[in-house]
Amino acid sequence: MAKQKQMGEQMELVANPQPIPEVQIQKSISPNQQAIQTFVNQIGLYEKKVLPMLLEKHGIHPSQFVQIVISELKKNEKLLQAFIQNPSSMYASILTGAEIGLMPSELIGEFYLIPRNMKQVDGSYKMSVTPLIGYKGLVSILLRSGDITKVHAEIVYEGDEFAPIYGLEPNIIHKPNFDVSRSADKIKFAYAVAKMRNGEYQFSVMTRAEIESVRNLSKFPNDLYFNDKMGINRWMEKKCALVQLSKMLPKDYYSKKAISMDSMLDGGAMLTLDENNQVKIIDNVINKPNSKFRNIYGTLNNINNSELPNSSQDVNVDTES
Questions:
Q1: Contact at 8 Å (CB) between 179 and 222?
Q2: What's this model's pTM, rounded to 2 decimal places?
């Protein structure tokens, strides 16, 4: 009898199901989530109208490029704040990476979006985004000329046998000594070598003092130099030697532009968008607030300016919880 009663109750539940409680959707989102959504919407316009013509010649699909940028923004709180405070610097940096064909990914290591607190032309300070070409990115763009078949850089430590030979038959002899300490304080030289298509080699050697001079000339502190914890791969020391070597190597249009831009940005320049959504570089903005704009790209003329954020447009974020 009890079993029949239980079955009857079950049949009643099937015939007259109880209402399922409505899922409560949180309508309010955090300011950071609002900023991310704003960026996703706006970068989607660039993906449709600008990025295809910039990335096509480099064989990079716009959707892949955009997803990498969004991922970088989501995982970096300071980068997100830089976008909120100075969105035009973010878009200008992204377009720069697309123009020279480098992926803006910390994991890939070719091109970085660096958030910095920078002085603006009006004298105020804002968190802003500046691009940085990594060692791997520099190698990539140098190989594009077609005249170079191989590029690499190495570090020389105390205890290594090292003999650069100049003259009519230049050469480098480097025999590392792995039996002694190879810590940052033992670095003596960095050198870069390029093999040309005709079989010849070119190289450039920099002493530790020369590398330190390059580091000290930068307007921005960089903890990766001579750092056993953060710079174990010695990318910055290697990049110094590679930049020096690149001055003597054949380069295509984008390589010349990338290396020149990287040098100016390291010297304190900043990228932004003008009122026509063209990327501009402001030279030495840190020391010269009244520096004039100088156009470095002219590829954005075919886009409807009213659809995209410009240099005077801020990200509207509701700071109320």
A1: no
A2: 0.76
pLDDT tens for the 321 residues of the chain, in order: 554 555 455 445 444 544 545 444 445 788 899 999 999 999 999 999 899 999 999 999 999 999 999 999 999 999 999 999 999 999 999 999 999 999 999 999 999 999 988 877 778 888 999 999 999 999 999 998 889 999 999 999 999 999 999 998 999 999 999 999 999 999 999 999 999 999 999 999 999 999 999 998 887 778 889 999 888 899 999 999 999 999 999 998 888 888 888 888 887 788 888 877 788 888 755 543 333 333 333 333 334 444 444 433 444 333 333
Which of 230, 250, 270 is the C-terminal boundary of a domain?
250
**82 part of a folded domain:** yes
Asked whether 56 and 95 are in contact (CB, 8 A), the reply is no
Within 10 A of 268 (CB to CB), how many other CB atoms are there?
Answer: 20
Q: Is residue 175 part of a domain?
A: yes
Using alpha carbons only, what angle is made at residue 121 by residues 119 and 127, rounded to the nearest 5 degrees? 35
- 68-86 burial, b at 16+ Cβ within 10 Å, e below that, comes to bbeebbeebeebbbbbbbb
Residue matched to tokens 């603006």: 120
Furthest CA-CA distance within the chain: 108
Q: Which H or E run includes 246? A: helix 235-246
The structural domain count of the chain equals 2
What are the CA-CA distances from residue 179 to residues 187, 196, 256, 275 (Å)?
15, 33, 40, 59
Bridge pairing between strands 171-175 and 187-196: unpaired
C-beta separation of 274 from 280 below 8 A = yes
> Whole-angstrom Cα distance, residue 308 to residue 244?
38
- Secondary structure of residue 150 in the 3-state scheme: strand
Extended strands (E) in 50-170:
111-119, 125-133, 148-157, 161-165
Give the strand pairing for 270-273 and 111-119. unpaired
Range of the domain at 151: 146-250
